[in-house]
Design goal:
The chain is mainly alpha-helical. The protein has 16 helices and six strands. It starts with a helix and ends with a helix.
């Protein structure tokens, strides 16, 4: 049950809620609704993934973060919503951003992380969904854009009741409480582990950059370059490589470091690029760069545009990081978490 639920999540609802499953708006809405059918909430997913993660990949608002550390809160409308909730939603249990404060237990996060990954869907279904609809916000994001509608609120509660009935109630009725609850929990643990594994390696991994907001002051606009944990900007290196390969350097296209598309490439990582099996199995997550550049394209097309995207990045001097396979990416992700758990706070 857990594996098939995960496949629905990455192959159907993901494309549906991005408007990429079909040409029909109705079919896309129905495809997105399948997330509610497996116990989650498509509205919550849209808030976190489409309003938070995609526009501001690997970005953390430094001002708001400092306010939190000082236990200073402000009205929701005064908060800067340019932050990626996927980056800091696991904090303080997991340190996934260099701005986060380091705790003693983060030294071991690369060891306990795989166990926490398994709890991802349980946390979303039983904690995050209810917290958002009751408070009207997702971290810094105003949730009333979805839950301000009475119809959407009714859909949320009705789907929660229906899914709990057939995913938990019926197994308990036919197999008893112990087996029924046990099967339900095992299914969620399997789904959570698989989904978290395929998601995290795309943005929390060796070589990936963290985005920073450009600042406008009296001296003009100070462009913030995306940088790795070591403070390096990979795009400086890739741009220099292109420049060195051209006799006439004026022919090399100039791309700003904070260009939206360039930032997406610098903060995302592929694995098994061009492989049709892993593309289908992961719902296109293996082609994360292509997905972030073209989120409204169905994931079945990523294999066909991958080579074009990679060559374009090489032409413009934009980083294009691809790991050989998921297992190599997973190892580099654990090494990255290990380094994050022992490095100083920026």
């Amino acid at each position: 049950m857990g594996i098939f639920a995960a496949m629905i999540g990455v192959n159907i609802q993901h494309d549906g809620n991005h408007g990429a499953f079909a040409k029909s708006k109705f079919i896309n809405k129905f495809a997105g609704w399948t997330f509610d059918m497996i116990g989650g909430s498509a509205f919550t997913w849209e808030l976190q993934h489409m309003l938070g993660h995609h526009p501001y990949t690997n970005v953390l608002d430094e001002v708001e973060h400092k306010r939190k550390e000082e236990e200073i809160d402000c009205k929701l409308e005064e908060k800067d919503q340019e932050s990626d909730p996927d980056v800091f939603s696991s904090f303080p249990l997991m340190r996934m951003h260099p701005l986060h404060e380091v705790s003693w237990f983060h030294r071991y996060q690369h060891i306990y992380a795989p166990f926490l990954f398994a709890l991802m869907t349980l946390a979303k279904v039983f904690q995050q969904d209810f917290e958002i609809i009751l408070t009207g916000k997702l971290y810094h994001i105003d949730a009333t854009v979805r839950y301000g509608s009475m119809w959407n609120v009714m859909r949320f509660w009705s789907m929660k009741i229906i899914t709990m009935f057939y995913m938990l109630g019926l197994p308990i009725y036919f197999h008893g409480a112990f087996k029924g609850v046990g099967l339900f929990v095992i299914g969620h643990l399997a789904a959570g582990e698989l989904l978290a594994t395929m998601f995290i390696v795309n943005h929390v991994i060796e070589g990936v950059s963290y985005g920073h907001k450009s600042v406008t002051n009296d001296e003009g606009v100070k462009v913030a370059k995306p940088a790795t944990l070591q403070g390096e900007t990979p795009m400086e290196r890739t741009r220099e490589q292109v420049m060195n390969g051209k006799a006439d350097k004026s022919t090399v296209p100039s791309v700003p470091f904070d260009d939206w598309a360039a930032v997406q490439c610098q903060t995302s990582v592929n694995w098994s690029s061009g492989n049709w099996f892993w593309n289908h199995f992961s719902g296109g997550l293996s082609h994360q760069i292509e997905h972030h550049l073209f989120p409204s394209i169905c994931h079945t097309n990523y294999c066909y545009i991958q080579e074009v995207v990679q060559k374009t990045c090489e032409e413009y001097g934009v980083p294009y990081q691809n790991e050989k396979n998921l297992f190599v990416a997973y190892g580099k992700m654990l090494n990255h978490l290990k380094f994050l758990g022992r490095s100083k706070q920026l």
